[in-house]
């Protein structure tokens, strides 16, 4: 863990524990490196920002797996029962490999265990009550802390909320709807923005054509022209760009792929934030940190049993997102749990918060990853305890969008002043 002390000790309110999500994003790095550009000067002045790496992540006994085995991951889109069986067998082999390299903590990387760790951190800090800021998957930590230790919370702000009550079909289809909605927002933006690389064209037709060419093996990675790109990789790249949203970047990438002649790749500069794959210049390592599925598959009972069930889920996902072809990230997350044991440490359930103070939920109306129905459902389950503040815009991060979203969090954390019910930014 790491603490960035309040910049103005005379105005200090207390500690603010933070988790930036993932699962797998280290909180120590957030507190040490990213907090100054993320939080306002007022929040930095009044709070000790305390980041921690959850178990299995970063410096907290990270989940490690064989790099060679990770590189052999099969397609998350099996075409028949035999390929489904190979996916399940691969996941079982990888799981045992990661357990062997990681040790006993691998079997206890679930969020409920992290919540208990967080209360141990509260005690170690000598605080009777804590404030907490959680983003994306970090909202699940906050929600479940409120369930278990609600009377130990001073204030809690959660942005880009996860709904941990969803079944497999609802989880996949709502995630797909979020991705498709962000694609539709991208198309509208491109039609109205002259700087878009696809402005003046039928953006949807260009996009669909690019994916169709990828299906035929006609498109290549602009940075590695010898390597063909799959439609899944292209959708995933755009999906990650929508997090920003970095629509100019997405449009330029699609336009460049559309202009490729068969077998030709051209240099394309991508941001270091979300490369499609590790740089080939990096030397191979015997093991790599890979905490995602160790956490995710112990938090969610998502276990399609056979190809027929899996294919039905995939078809429902594709119907919900025909242009994005489902939800590229969540589909792969669910695929990674195929073949895991049925027992789950922290299965889905409706939130039951009984002792916590008012909690502030913020969420973008057009979040590409977490559909707006998720915070709405969390709010319904906890109506007496939560206040939902929608941001009427796009992207995954919410706090720093504008003065409205930033002031809502800052005023609440510092003064416990909540926006009126029904407000929006």
UniProtKB/TrEMBL annotation:
Keywords noted in UniProt: Hydrolase, Signal
Listed PANTHER family: 2-SUCCINYL-6-HYDROXY-2,4-CYCLOHEXADIENE-1-CARBOXYLATE SYNTHASE, TRIPEPTIDYL AMINOPEPTIDASE
Annotated stretches, region: Disordered: 257-290
Name by which UniProt lists this protein: Alpha/beta fold hydrolase
Biased composition (Pro residues): 277-286
Organism from which the protein derives: Streptomyces coerulescens
GO MF term (any one): hydrolase activity
Higher taxonomy: Bacteria, Bacillati, Actinomycetota, Actinomycetes, Kitasatosporales
Residue ranges annotated for the AB hydrolase-1 domain, each copy included: 15-209
